[in-house]
């Protein structure tokens, strides 16, 4: 996807908070990323779980945005800038079969492709339940009109929550489709990324990592006792009425400040060591696969 028409492939990425980031191609690397914006300069951020796809939806020669959201909507954001300097208008809900698209299970992941090879761009959308649906374009190249959804991939048959419960050949949820002729037979296939399992595991650790973990674990009990004693002393002194004499008052306040600083330093050190220890603890890991759904017959 060449978002700015400079002849180099770029990457755009949605996010759970909503903003969409553009990573420009620079040689064999990508730049650090910039947030895509509306024409008024404000960041695009109209829904959680944004899933963008760039395509010239209205046929004016400029790449627009088709954005799925976590609540199952699919929005069209026209490029109101130029081919080389894209900025985008307000989101407009895409309709199919006379109704605004609403993927029942949520987490809409749209891509655009000519699924039925009629020269008009169609819309294909993955969903939270693992399904993939096709909205055929019964309109024109410059004025798409989408028909009601047809199922390409049914909802996942797997409970997916852990690897032991998923049987061979069962794909997972949160389908993220790509459309490509994978086997070169002239028919478009689907590659579908998913979230399909999880397991309890510890992060990989070398000898240095294990030593760091053991050292942090060994230091924490003594530091916690030291912090508790320092905090008790600080709290007791803070609750003591301040003396009236100038020198005594100054000494009292200096002692309070010293104890406050000690309590803060100990707390910061405990937090640092807890972060080290937590880094190497076992936890629940999720993962997914990419599945090939091979096209058997042409679309009708």
Automatic annotation (TrEMBL):
Coiled coil spans: 249-276
Family matches, as Pfam families: FG-GAP_3 (PF13517)
Keywords: Coiled coil, Signal
InterPro entries reported for this sequence: FG-GAP, Integrin_alpha_N
Taxonomy, superkingdom: Bacteria
Protein name: VCBS repeat-containing protein
Organism this protein belongs to: Frigoriglobus tundricola
